[in-house]
Amino acid sequence: MTSLTDTPFTVAGRDFSSRLLVGTGKYKDFDETGAAIAQSGAEIVTFAVRRTNLGQDTEAPNLLDVISPKRYTLLPNTAGCYTAKDAVRTCRLARELLDGHNLVKLEVLGDDTTLYPNVVETLQAAETLLADGFDVMVYTSDDPIVARELEAMGCCAIMPLGSLIGSGHGIQNPHNVRLIIEQSQVPVLVDAGIGTASDAAMAMELGCDGVLLNSAIAHARDPLRMANAMKLAVQAGRDAFLSGRMPRRQTADPSSPFAGRING
Amino acid sequence: MSTPDELIQLTLNGDPHSLAAGATAADLVEELGLSGRRIAVEINEEIVPKSQLADTRLANGDHVEVVHAIGGG
């Protein structure tokens, strides 16, 4: 049996074998967070930056005790930021938090009903962050023109939404995602909207370089099992993409030969 | 010149906070019980690197943010 090989997933000059990136939000507790992320096989893990709760138990475990920067490549996000300015501040805080680590997930949101990306603020923030030496993986709409602008500015990964953050509606416009994939020289990841394994497989079959998800695992009834499902789905979708699927036909094409039938 | 008895008023993570005049950012982190924890400090929207916390004196009216990592996607 020949072994099947794949090129590594490369972002910002770093190689990874897993093409599944996961978030750390919405879990029941840190034990569940750590177990689900380990089960997913993810090597890049996102987290959020928030004010320290003052006056509380300062000995309580910290997320970074569970998701060790030694084991995982941490990807701080700017979730909750509605302006370029706040997103830039958040990235600078994250860089300080991680001792100079400069890979970030930029997301600047438009409103709290849709959490849809505000692309005007996103473009402004990307410009400032890139000038400040950050490697920017950018969450954006599935607009190919905006994606092209972000790539031209120097973002190291383009991450269009599949559907609204946390909605679990899957990939609502696969045609746009495909357009973005076909035009991009940097990795394209579907980020947001993945609800179940088939959504992740679909992203990979479209030709995405990776998938970033959080709620689909954290809000599954059994997060550990869904983490495993997502790992397998991303691998299956990737292999299906690399295989080159069979052409679609309008009519049937028998798998068993016509010749030699007993009624022939 | 301030005496140690004098207090300065900060805005710390959005709330009022009093601190002895002359205190440094490292003193504040210590008072909060966060020494050695994985945090980041910003004063008036500028990052204060860990290496400079002890050399950064806080002033009346400073806006201080102390942040850490939490779960998120």
UniProtKB/TrEMBL annotation, chain A:
Q: Which InterPro entries match?
A: Aldolase_TIM, Thiazole_synthase_ThiG, ThiG
- Catalytic residues as annotated in Swiss-Prot or TrEMBL: 105
**Recorded GO CC terms:** cytoplasm
| UniProt binding sites for 1-deoxy-D-xylulose 5-phosphate | 166, 192-193, 214-215
Select a single GO molecular function from the record's annotations and give it. Answer: thiazole synthase activity
Q: For the Thiazole synthase ThiG domain, which residue ranges apply? A: 11-257
> Which key words are in the record?
Cytoplasm, Schiff base, Thiamine biosynthesis, Transferase
The primary site where this protein sits is cytoplasm
Q: What is its EC number?
A: 2.8.1.10
Q: Record's CDD domains?
A: ThiG
Q: Which Gene3D superfamilies match?
A: Aldolase class I
Q: In which pathway does it act?
A: Cofactor biosynthesis; thiamine diphosphate biosynthesis
Among Pfam families, the record links this protein to: ThiG (PF05690)
Q: Which reaction does it catalyse?
A: [ThiS sulfur-carrier protein]-C-terminal-Gly-aminoethanethioate + 2-iminoacetate + 1-deoxy-D-xylulose 5-phosphate = [ThiS sulfur-carrier protein]-C-terminal Gly-Gly + 2-[(2R,5Z)-2-carboxy-4-methylthiazol-5(2H)-ylidene]ethyl phosphate + 2 H2O + H(+)
Any Gene Ontology biological process: thiamine diphosphate biosynthetic process
Keyword Cytoplasm among UniProt keywords = yes
Q: Provide the protein's localization.
A: Cytoplasm
Source taxon at top rank: Bacteria
Query: Looking at the keywords, is Methyltransferase present?
Result: no
Similarity section: Belongs to the ThiG family.
Q: What does this protein do?
A: Catalyzes the rearrangement of 1-deoxy-D-xylulose 5-phosphate (DXP) to produce the thiazole phosphate moiety of thiamine. Sulfur is provided by the thiocarboxylate moiety of the carrier protein ThiS. In vitro, sulfur can be provided by H(2)S.
Self-association or partners: how does it assemble? Homotetramer. Forms heterodimers with either ThiH or ThiS.
Protein name according to UniProt: Thiazole synthase
Per the UniProt record, the source organism is Vreelandella subterranea
Task: Give the lineage.
Answer: Bacteria, Pseudomonadati, Pseudomonadota, Gammaproteobacteria, Oceanospirillales
Recorded name of the encoding gene = thiG
From TrEMBL, chain B:
Q: What Gene3D superfamilies does the record point to?
A: 3.10.20.30
Q: Which domain of life is it from?
A: Bacteria
| Residue intervals passing through the bilayer | none
NCBIfam families membership: thiS (TIGR01683)
Q: What is this protein called?
A: Sulfur carrier protein ThiS
